[in-house]
């Protein structure tokens, strides 16, 4: 049986045995083959486009980690803790519901405010901005509340603070990962 | 041709015979292999041959309509934009020889270009000023094309290509802005790219973003920056985009754009009987040359006299106050005062682009093609120019009226003056509504005049969704639903009467001062006139599909004005807020 | 018309480009460099004329010829280890050791002069290894006068003038108090440690917590200084400081040459805020420090930088400070008094309490106006009423800000208070401090 696609030049190389894919024994039609060919091209272009999109998401970035281990959660009492202020520039605050941290950088011009426990507020020595213990501005030229870094509990019971992930919007800052629920 | 001979001076040397030298050169094999045609004669045939036979010129037709040659028709804006693109390409390539896009060297190379490279300062100045000028001229070109109706059928596609070119021009300017790596560069780009993080679904700070699993290190902003913040990866990406990828794309689109102008013929005005065409060589070519030379002179002189700024080196730990986007985006940054980033930075720009591209398909008025027609296309002209005016007014406000902490400073006020903290803002429809605060009797409950706390909502969400949604739909449908045209005089009387009543009511019932109450009729009138009266008068007769799409864009524009009025006049931050899904309107 | 425009624009294009070339070519540095070569050649030729030895005269003439044919180009010193490229020698050719090996010139005017102190500083600080700007500051990459000296906008480290120059020594020299050539900075450190600055300011965590840590004050970017405050500073002539001088050295110096309350007024009458905010709590040092003292302290403070990473092989540890010896407890107590900066609030030797805005103090009558007359306690007057135990407890517990009585109850909270010294002053130091304080108390009348 002659191959209908290439009629003249090539002698049939195989005897007329039915090909396994087509039980009826017919070879693929020209129209179907062309569709197959074009579909293959479209598939190639499509996967190419998807791969190009994936290409633009870097797998490694050279931003140094700003995480640090703040110590066992048990070692913190209620209130504002100053132990990491000098080295890491964060206050760690424990309430009866859990923990949050505040980045000790005034949102006005970047000075480090001081915590006044007797007045229950942070006061910046540079231009007098005052913040509540939640970080909201109650006086002074600061335009935004204090930023909260992400805080989580490690498997060994330590607090892990990540200063690269920050939030200052009320509503979002009281949720995970910016607030750590902790009892005991 | 006569040979010009001169009587040789007595006893002096014989002057060379220029005419015959020229003939010998032009008839030589070398010359003729490069330039066909031999010595040119000033005949129509040879003038046509100039145009057809030259690869750079043969995009032009041989003859062009006389009205297309008028300066006052096109003002040469498109051509000047293209010349600026060429100047940018040439100066840009030259700058690339002395600039390295790394965090360690970029700033240093900028200093070297200024101090140590021959003509480095001139190249940089020319590049920067041409870039600013190109943004301006591209917008002016778009306005001209609109006002002359040169986008109507069959030129809709070319208008769309033009809108894409406008977007790419802005993107080129934006990516180039980062390359000097000074404070202005880094923070302007930070402001601009933070808007990408507010994209709905695809940005980690946009509505529904966290639901889609978007975080700061896998969303669309991450891929634009190559990291979580503007850093060394961003510099390289923007460099490649700015110098290679986007210029190639612009080149391709320019080819399509010019081809379409040629094929659809320049100037589509109706033909006068017995109209004659003018020859491109020399009439069009001379005008193009003069426009180009004038533009070149302006850029050159400007670049010699004015220096492009370079601030201190980029420092990620120090944010300038205020931090502003480049001037062509500062209008969107001003909109951020009134809208959340996903609206101001994502939805509105996209709506503008889509809206612009849709114009030729919506505007089926056959009048005013190929000429400026004010009376015959009132609706189109007024609304388009309103949009352009809003764009530039917002830019003006954002650039000149916003100082440190983005507080309001009149343009003549020094930014050193201290300003009081702004009053708290409140929301109209939201969770935990406190409706009593609308009523201004008890001193603490007067949210319209002096909000006592921040972020309080006064009316419930279940009311807000239908009111806002329904209101928008009603505003879209109303002009067409009113079958007869409302007389202008009557409409105005009714409107201002209603406004006066409202202002008086606000004053006596809830103690809103008259000076504050006047914001209501100001913005209200703008929305009434442009959003109801004009459509009512002009597009009532459009069929429903086109009508609704047009009204969608018109009402969206009015929505921007209404929101601005609400914020500036009454300190309303959100008309509707759904914090659970980060959706705030 | 078109023809006219054609000629006009072509001509303008050419003219514009020629103008650009001219502007690009005629830079100041070419002028200065050419003049240096000219002048030096002139000096050499004059010497050649006066010389009696013909061989020497010929040599001098050859040198002069070489000078006259030197190419005019940008010259730079690349201090690779420091990551600096300094083009100062483009104008200051006399300080280029390859053009002028002796580094001295016959000229006194800049930029033609040579570099001073050859046997001292220059011998120990090879120019190729250090460059110029690591000591002198300024903008090394620039070659125009204003820009290179850093006197332009957008360059935050201008050329350090004479007394402040010594701030740079501390970048490499540890313990510079005894370093020859850093006397002014050492004097500044001494003043800082004896006039009570440490009572409010700490340096690397050592000192008071009331105000900012100054450990890296030299790195403070201009963006973090409120321009409004800079606009209120007065220069040495009493006039407001010109805009081009609004830089960090002027800001630091102003704290000692201006009254801080005047240029950091904040908002004591609640005009811009919901609550009043007291002006700067820093006292007025203009009466007890001279201009030279202020320069010295500024030089010391400008040496406190953490940003620049100098390679360790440049570091020279100085001799360690000697442990101080005290003759008796009172002497030791006086040392402790200075060490913790008590003079910052209580005055030198506790003789006059410094100003504390809106605290209850002497001479206050008008509720709204006399808030600036509030004072800290004058120790010599008050100490007599304390027993040793009471005094010890007072020092250890401090006086929190909320317990300081306000003169005007509607006015701002006073900015200064007494911190708790429990953690810092203990044991023998505490005892000797109490002894010293008891010794300076004025004798009270018998009860």
Structure explained in plain terms:
The complex is a heterotrimer of chains A (184), B (585) and C (447). Chain A has 184 residues and is of the alpha+beta class. Chain A folds into two domains: 26-62; 67-181, 3-layer Sandwich (Rieske Iron-sulfur Protein). Helices cover 16% and strands 27% of the residues of chain A. Chain A contains two helices and eleven strands; from the N terminus they run H-E-E-H-E-E-E-E-E-E-E-E-E. Chain A has helices at 30-55, 85-88, and strands at residues 67-72, 79-81, 90-94, 98-103, 114-116, 121-123, 130-131, 137-139, 148-153, 158-167, 180-181. Residues 1-10 and 12-21 of chain A have low confidence and may be disordered. In chain B, the strands form two sheets. In chain B, strands 4-3-5-6 form a four-stranded mixed beta sheet. A two-stranded antiparallel ribbon of chain B has the order 1-2. With 585 residues, chain B is mostly helical. Chain B contains 20 helices and six strands. Chain B starts with 17 loop residues before the first helix and ends with a strand. Chain C is 37% helix and 2% strand. Chain C starts with a helix and ends in a 7-residue tail after the last helix. Chain C has helices spanning 2-25, 28-50, 54-68, 118-124, 127-130, 133-136, 145-148, 183-194, 227-230, 248-257, 260-263, 291-302, 329-339, 343-346, 379-382, 388-397, 427-440; strands at residues 77-79, 84-86, 202-203, 206-207. Chain C has 447 residues and is mostly helical. In chain C, the strands form two sheets. Chain C has a two-stranded antiparallel sheet with strand order 1-2. In chain C, strands 3-4 form a two-stranded antiparallel ribbon. Chain C folds into three domains: 70-148, no CATH class; 166-314, Orthogonal Bundle (Cytochrome Bc1 Complex, Chain D, domain 2); 329-440, Cytochrome Bc1 Complex, Chain D, domain 2 (Orthogonal Bundle). Classes of the chains: A alpha+beta (184), B mainly alpha (585), C mainly alpha (447). Chains in contact: A-B, A-C, B-C. The interface between B and C is large, with 40 and 38 residues.
């Amino acid at each position: 049986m002659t191959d209908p696609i290439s009629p003249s030049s090539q002698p049939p190389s195989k005897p007329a045995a039915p090909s396994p894919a087509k039980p009826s024994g017919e070879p693929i039609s020209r129209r179907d083959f062309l569709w197959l060919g074009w579909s293959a091209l479209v598939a190639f272009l499509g996967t190419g486009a998807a791969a190009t999109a994936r290409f633009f998401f870097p797998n490694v970035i050279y931003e140094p980690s700003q995480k640090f281990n703040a110590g066992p959660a048990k070692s913190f009492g209620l209130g504002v803790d100053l132990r990491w202020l000098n080295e890491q520039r964060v206050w760690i605050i424990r309430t009866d519901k859990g923990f949050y941290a505040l980045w000790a950088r005034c949102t006005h011009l970047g000075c480090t405010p001081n915590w006044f426990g007797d007045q229950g507020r942070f006061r910046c020595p540079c231009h007098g901005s005052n913040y509540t213990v939640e970080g909201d501005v109650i006086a002074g030229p600061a335009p935004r509340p204090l930023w909260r870094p992400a805080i989580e509990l490690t498997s060994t019971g330590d607090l892990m603070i990540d200063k690269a992930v920050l939030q200052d919007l009320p509503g979002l800052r009281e949720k995970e990962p910016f607030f750590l629920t902790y009892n005991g | 041709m006569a040979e010009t001979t001169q009587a040789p001076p007595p006893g002096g040397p014989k002057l060379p015979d220029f005419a015959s030298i020229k003939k010998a050169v032009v008839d030589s094999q070398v010359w003729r292999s490069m330039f066909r045609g031999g010595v040119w004669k000033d005949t129509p045939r040879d003038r046509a041959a100039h145009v057809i036979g030259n690869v750079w010129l043969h995009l032009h037709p041989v003859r062009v309509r006389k009205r297309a040659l008028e300066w006052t028709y096109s003002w040469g804006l498109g051509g000047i934009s293209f010349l600026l693109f060429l100047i940018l390409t040439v100066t840009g390539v030259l700058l690339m020889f002395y600039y390295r896009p790394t965090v360690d060297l970029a700033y240093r190379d900028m200093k070297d270009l200024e101090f140590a490279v021959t003509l480095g300062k001139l190249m940089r100045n020319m590049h920067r000023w041409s870039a600013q000028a190109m943004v301006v001229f591209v917008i002016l070109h778009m306005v001209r094309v609109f006002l002359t109706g040169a986008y109507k059928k069959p030129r809709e596609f070319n208008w769309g290509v033009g809108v894409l070119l406008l977007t790419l021009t802005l993107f080129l300017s934006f990516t180039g802005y980062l390359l000097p790596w000074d404070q202005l560069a880094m923070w302007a780009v930070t402001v601009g790219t933070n808007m990408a993080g507010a994209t709905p679904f695809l940005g980690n700070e946009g509505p529904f973003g966290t639901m889609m699993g978007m975080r700061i290190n896998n969303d669309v902003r991450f891929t634009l920056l190559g990291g979580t913040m503007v850093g060394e990866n961003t510099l390289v990406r923007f460099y490649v985009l700015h110098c290679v990828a986007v210029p190639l794309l612009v080149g391709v689109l320019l080819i399509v754009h010019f081809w379409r102008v040629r094929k659809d013929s320049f100037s589509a005005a109706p033909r006068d009987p017995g109209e004659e065409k003018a020859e491109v060589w020399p009439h069009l070519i001379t005008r193009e040359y003069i426009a180009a030379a004038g533009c070149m002179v302006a850029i050159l002189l400007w670049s010699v006299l004015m220096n492009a700024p370079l601030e201190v080196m980029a420092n990620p730990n120090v944010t300038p106050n205020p931090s502003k986007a480049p001037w062509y985006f500062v209008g969107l940054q001003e909109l951020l005062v009134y809208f959340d980033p996903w609206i101001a930075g994502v939805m509105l720009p996209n709506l503008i682009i889509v809206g612009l591209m849709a114009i030729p398909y919506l505007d089926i008025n056959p009048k005013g093609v190929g000429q400026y027609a004010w009376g015959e296309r009132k609706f189109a002209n007024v609304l388009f120019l309103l949009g352009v005016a809003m764009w530039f007014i917002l830019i003006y406000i954002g650039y000149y009226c916003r100082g440190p902490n983005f507080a309001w400073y009149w343009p003549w006020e020094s930014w050193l003056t201290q300003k009081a903290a702004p009053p708290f803002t409140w929301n109209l429809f939201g969770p935990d509504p406190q409706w009593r605060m609308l009523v201004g009797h008890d001193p603490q409950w007067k949210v319209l005049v002096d909000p006592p706390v921040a972020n309080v909502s006064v009316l419930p969400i279940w009311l807000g969704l239908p009111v806002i949604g329904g209101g928008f739909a009603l505003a879209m449908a109303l002009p067409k639903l009113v079958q007869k045209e409302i007389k202008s005089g009557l409409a105005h009387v009714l409107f201002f009467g209603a406004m006066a009543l409202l202002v008086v009511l606000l004053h006596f019932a809830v103690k809103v001062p008259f000076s504050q109450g006047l914001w209501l009729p100001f913005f209200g009138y703008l929305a009434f006139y442009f959003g109801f009266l004009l459509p009512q008068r002009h597009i009532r007769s459009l069929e429903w599909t086109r009508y609704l799409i047009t009204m969608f864009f018109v009402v969206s524009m009015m929505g921007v004005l209404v929101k601005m009025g609400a914020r500036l006049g009454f300190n309303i931050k959100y008309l509707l807020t759904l914090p659970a899904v980060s959706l705030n309107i | 018309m078109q023809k006219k425009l054609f000629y006009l624009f072509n001509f303008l294009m050419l003219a514009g480009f020629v103008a650009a070339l001219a502007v690009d070519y005629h830079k100041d540095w070419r002028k200065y460099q050419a003049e240096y070569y000219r002048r030096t050649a002139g000096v050499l030729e004059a010497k050649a004329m006066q010389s009696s030895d013909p061989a020497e005269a010929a040599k001098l003439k050859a040198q002069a010829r070489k000078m006259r044919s030197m190419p005019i180009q940008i010259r730079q010193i690349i201090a690779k280890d420091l990551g600096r490229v300094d083009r100062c020698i483009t104008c200051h050719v006399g300080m280029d050791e390859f053009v002028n090996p002796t580094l001295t010139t016959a000229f006194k005017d800049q930029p033609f002069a040579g570099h001073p102190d050859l046997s001292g500083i220059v011998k120990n600080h090879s120019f190729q290894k250090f460059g110029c700007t690591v000591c002198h500051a300024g903008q090394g990459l620039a070659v125009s006068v204003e820009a290179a000296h850093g006197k332009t906008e957008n360059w935050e480290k201008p050329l350090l003038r004479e007394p402040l120059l010594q701030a740079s020594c501390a970048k490499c020299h540890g313990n510079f108090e005894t370093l020859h050539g850093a006397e002014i900075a050492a004097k500044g450190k001494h003043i800082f440690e004896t006039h009570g600055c440490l009572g409010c300011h700490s340096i690397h965590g050592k000192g008071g917590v009331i105000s900012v840590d100054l450990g890296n004050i030299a790195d403070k970017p201009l963006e973090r200084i409120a321009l409004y405050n800079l606009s209120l500073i007065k220069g040495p002539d009493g006039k407001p400081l010109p805009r081009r001088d609004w830089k960090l050295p002027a800001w630091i110096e102003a704290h000692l040459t201006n009254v801080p309350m005047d240029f950091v007024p904040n908002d004591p009458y609640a005009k811009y805020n919901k609550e009043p905010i007291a002006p700067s709590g820093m006292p007025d040092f203009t009466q007890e420090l001279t201009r030279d003292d202020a320069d010295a302290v500024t030089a010391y403070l400008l040496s406190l930088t953490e940003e620049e990473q100098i390679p360790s092989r440049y570091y020279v540890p100085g001799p360690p400070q000697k442990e101080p010896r005290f003759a008796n407890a009172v002497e030791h107590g006086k040392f402790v008094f200075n060490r913790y900066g008590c003079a910052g609030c209580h005055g030198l030797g506790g003789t006059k309490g410094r100003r504390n805005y809106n605290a209850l103090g002497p001479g206050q009558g008008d509720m709204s106006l006399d808030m600036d007359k509030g004072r800290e306690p004058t120790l010599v007057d008050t100490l007599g009423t304390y027993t040793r135990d009471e005094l010890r407890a007072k020092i250890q517990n401090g006086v929190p800000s909320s317990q300081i009585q306000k003169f005007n109850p509607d006015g701002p909270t006073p900015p200064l208070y007494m911190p708790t010294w429990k953690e810092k002053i203990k044991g023998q130091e505490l005892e000797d401090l109490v002894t010293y304080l008891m010794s300076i108390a004025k004798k009270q009348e018998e009860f």
